[in-house]
Amino acid sequence: MSSILFWIFALLMLVFGAGVIINRNPVASALNLVVSFLGLAALFMSLDAYFVGIIQVLVYAGAIMVLFLFIIMLLDLRAEKLRRINWVASVGGTGVALALLTQIFYVVANFKAAQQPFLPLARSTVDDVHSIGALLFSAYNLPFQIIGVLVLVATVGVVVLSKRELP
Amino acid sequence: MATLGDYLIVSGILFAIGFAGVMLRRNLIIILMALELMLNAANLSLVAFSRFHLRADGLPAYKAQVFVFFIITVAAAEVAVGLAIIVALFRVRQTTHVEDISTLKF
User: Fold this and answer.
1) Mutate which of A9, A31, A52 to test chain B, going by most B C-beta atoms within 10 A?
2) Contact: A14, B27; criterion CB under 8 Å
3) What mean pLDDT comes out for the span A17-34?
4) In chain B, positions 16-75, which contact chain A (CB-CB < 8 Å)?
5) Please, which contacts does A70-75 make with residues 24 or more away whose CB atoms are closer than 8 Å?
6) Which of A8, A48, A80, A108 would best serve as a mutation to test chain B binding (most B beta carbons within 10 A)?
7) Which of A28, A93, A141, B103 is deepest in the core (most CB within 10 A)?
8) What is chain A's alpha carbon radius of gyration, rounded to the nearest angstrom?
9) Start-to-end Cα distance in chain B
């Protein structure tokens, strides 16, 4: 994928990602998050990771965002009222985020491999879904089953949390 | 062509946006969304390294993409449980604002 498309989708993702934390209305934040995830899915596709890109659209932009919007509308959250700003937390949070960003820029600038372009992929007879699936069911079979148990536990936990009679 | 460094920088900026969101915002649902942004930034750098570090047969290192698959699964479970807790909290306290929920604060 050409460089221009990379920057278009990266900018789309970052601008709408910033929109998530700038908007006061939770519904607007959730919709910004959808666009941000779609930009991220396009970046995954530009890295030839088609399976991960499709999963990103299906699971994140589909399932998780529907869950977020459903809860926001169920709780009937309005736009937040402006409260007294906690200056220590605001300045501290921004400061730590900026320090982290500076560090990342510094490390990437001094990382020799980061300046090399991506090598072209070899032609392959199998697609990446096949390769990832084969790896998932051979070398990573135990983690895969543990993750299955985790999802089951989460499901049961959510049902218990929402059914329990609260005092 | 975009290099590995470009992807890492973009991923770092996305992580910083998510981190700032967790620190600055006071609404629990927005904090969960910012957490998702941070998880996705980690996913982006994992996939970039997977494409950069080719295996001996010239295909991407698919181990990293298996890891991304696990992260997405855990994130989905985390969002479901987190939102259920927020709903349970809202039924008791009628708020999702972190400053109204300070019973356990020292």
Assistant:
1) A52
2) no
3) 92
4) 16-27, 29-30, 32-34, 36-37, 40, 43-44, 47-48, 50-52, 54, 57-60, 62-63, 65-66, 68-70, 72-75
5) A71/B29, A71/B83, A71/B86, A71/B87, A72/A26, A72/A27, A72/A30, A72/B29, A73/A27, A74/B87, A75/B86, A75/B87, A75/B90, A75/B96
6) A108
7) A93
8) 21
9) 52
**Domains along the sequence of chain B with CATH:** 4-98 (1.10.287.3510)
Q: Is B94 left (phi over 0), alpha (psi -120 to 50) or beta?
A: left
Average pLDDT over chain B, rounded to an integer: 90
pLDDT tens column, B1-44 = 788 889 999 999 999 999 999 988 888 999 999 999 999 999 99
Q: Which residues of B15-35 are buried (b: 16+ CB within 10 A; e: fewer)?
A: bbbbbbbbbbbbbbbbbbbbb
- Residue A166 binned pLDDT confidence (cut-offs 50, 70, 90): low
Does the distance separating the beta carbons of B66 and A135 come in below 8 Å?
yes
DSSP three-state, residue A47? coil
CB atoms within 10 A of CB A164: 9
Question: Does the predicted interface ipTM exceed a cut of 0.95?
Answer: no
Minimal Cα distance from A71: which residue of B? B83
What is the C-alpha to C-alpha distance for residues A51 and B49, in angstroms, rounded to an integer?
16
Taking the model in full, what pTM does it have? 0.91
State how far the Cα of B106 lies from the Cα of B95, in Å rounded to an integer: 20
Q: Count the helices and strands in chain A (H runs, E runs).
A: 7, 0
Q: Hey, CA dihedral for B78, B84, B87, B92, is it positive or negative?
A: negative
